[in-house]
Amino acid sequence: MDRLWAPWRIQYILGPRDEGCFLCDRPAQNADRKNLILRRARTCFAILNAYPYNPGHLMVAPYKHTGELDGLTEQELTELMVLLRECQDVVRRAMNPAGFNIGINLGKVAGAGVLDHVHIHLVPRWDGDVNFMPVTGSVRVIPQALEETYDQLLKHLPAAGIVGA
Predict the structure, then answer these.
(1) Distance in angstroms (rounded) separating the CA atoms of residues 34 and 29
(2) CATH code: domain of residue 146
């Protein structure tokens, strides 16, 4: 294959860059579907990653803007993990992955793309989901549109309410 067309990426390449912190700005907009926010809890929320490694790649973050875990209260830390567990269950039921990568990158040298707002990545994994494309072409192939993933996961979320309430 000589070319892999990904025309939706041009929005990211040429589009305007967000000023400020998208993990603060997106929840404040009250446009959950547009912003791919799957779930809101008292102190935390879950949002699909707009540039995913795999379909279903999402992030769980506190509303509080802090770059360190010690900037969160015990309640915020607990809710962060409870919401992460709920999201893992939803992704498992909706997409049936063989496993998950779950991680927090703190600091630039650790791979953090957002340096000053703690968040946890949940990446579903399937047998054979890593192929030659990332290795030889530095390209990831995402076989599902974000809106389709959003709808698929949304169908498996429990009834609206506060997580852990």
Answers:
(1) 10
(2) 3.30.428.10
Can you give the residue range of the structural domain that contains 102?
Answer: 18-154
Higher pLDDT, 68 or 132: 68
d(CA 138, CA 25): 30
Please say if 119 is a catalytic residue.
Answer: yes
Global confidence as pTM:
0.76
Q: Flag whether 100 is in a domain.
A: yes
Is the pLDDT confidence value at 1 over 50?
A: no
Which residue in the list 57, 65, 117, 119 is annotated as catalytic?
119
Q: Report the candidate in 131, 150, 149 with the shortest Cα–Cα distance to residue 140.
A: 131
Are the C-beta atoms of 155 and 149 separated by less than 8 Å?
no
